[in-house]
Specification:
By secondary structure, the chain is mainly alpha-helical. The chain has one domain. The chain contains 13 helices and 4 strands. The strands form 2 sheets. The chain has a two-stranded antiparallel ribbon. The chain has a two-stranded antiparallel ribbon with strand order 3-4. Helix 6 packs antiparallel against helix 13. The termini are far apart.
Length: 345
């Protein structure tokens, strides 16, 4: 196990260093060029905030993977990593263009489907539904394509939807990445490449969070949330659902908060006769804020729910002890990051 976790830890540290180093440069560029997220009726912040932090998350992920590949003298072919990175980069570029110039919801939706289709054609496919409790192993056949695209596009947008409170999307994304990485590590056989990319993504997000906790100095924007959501959705497919021993419900446990939020939001809008793409201020984080919680307490409440769901998921696969150790370390890091953010007031 020690040898299996070594490179993911190196990747995590490298990604953190890359990301935390790039964020100030990105923020400086945003201030110079005027790339701000302006206050509005649905927005919580009261002043313009730079919004291209996703650049740091993307660069941190890509360059850290390159670093690990150079250290190992081997590229992980045959693990759908190229599919994930290509599709994720398409999502990143889409979000970046939307952050800087603005795009229609329908156009973004069609490009998202295209990115998910690219990943599917290159090997990111949900080919079966495994339900060990019922002793069922269902081959999806034709339905593999629409279910895979729905899963990837849905989760990509789910993280975009919850990116409404300082530090929320990044915190949940990082914990989810660590959880998925641990589950992939104990799979039989171990999905070590998936674990590596999960830890790299988590490190890149943590570097960004140094500047994103309340009061945020930069937002990840659509470029960050779509890239992060796409990678997490794809990694659940290649790292968890590909394992015959694991139930298809495990990813739902791991990503329960964004999944519940997007399902609730879509249903609510459709019942009101509105487009599911229409924006409102009735997401989970909005309701917690209206109930009187501060931004930090809202993040803590939803983080607690995510960790609790992660405990269930890792208990099922026999990785609870490793998960709890990781959560303690990450929680200490998040606490330190939040303190640093407060000192910047």
């Amino acid at each position: 196990m020690d040898s299996l976790i070594k490179m993911p830890i190196i990747g995590f540290i490298a990604a953190f260093i890359f990301s935390v180093s790039v964020v100030p440069l990105v923020r400086k560029m945003c201030l110079k060029e005027g790339y701000y997220d302006l206050p509005g009726e649905r927005k919580i912040h009261k002043k313009p905030i730079p919004r291209l932090g996703g650049i740091a998350i993307w660069l941190g992920t890509i360059f850290s993977l390159i670093t690990v590949v150079l250290l190992q003298h081997e590229y992980p072919f045959g693990n759908s990593i190229s599919a994930i990175l290509v599709g994720g980069t398409i999502m990143f570029i889409l979000g970046l263009v939307d952050d800087t110039y603005g795009l229609s919801a329908k156009f973004k939706f069609f490009v998202q489907i295209g990115a998910a289709l690219v990943a599917f054609l290159l090997g990111v496919q949900i080919n079966y539904a495994n339900l060990p409790v019922l002793d069922l192993h269902i081959m999806l056949g034709f339905w593999s394509l629409p279910i895979t695209i729905l899963w990837i596009v849905g989760l990509s947008n789910a993280f975009n939807f919850i990116d409404g409170v300082d530090g929320l999307a990044g915190t949940l994304g990082m914990i989810s990445a660590i959880t998925l990485g641990i589950i992939a590590l104990v799979a039989q056989p171990p999905q070590t490449t998936c674990t590596l990319l999960c830890f790299i993504l988590a490190g890149a997000i943590l570097g960004f969070l140094v500047f994103n906790y309340n009061p945020a100095r930069i937002f990840m924007g659509d470029s960050g949330s779509l890239f992060m959501g796409f990678l997490l959705a794809s990694l659940t497919v290649v790292g968890v659902m590909k394992s015959v021993a694991f139930t298809i419900f495990l990813p739902v446990f791991v990503l329960v908060v964004p999944i519940f939020d997007i399902c609730f939001a879509t249903t609510r809008r459709l019942l009101k006769g509105k487009s599911p793409f229409s924006a409102d201020a009735e997401h989970l984080h909005h309701k917690l804020l209206k109930a009187g919680l501060s931004q930090n307490k809202t993040v803590f409440a939803l983080l607690t729910a995510t960790i609790a769901a992660g405990i269930i998921a890792t208990y099922i696969v026999g990785a609870l002890r490793l998960y709890l150790i990781a959560v303690l370390i990450i929680s200490a890091a998040l606490f330190l990051v939040s303190i640093i953010s407060k000192l910047r007031k």
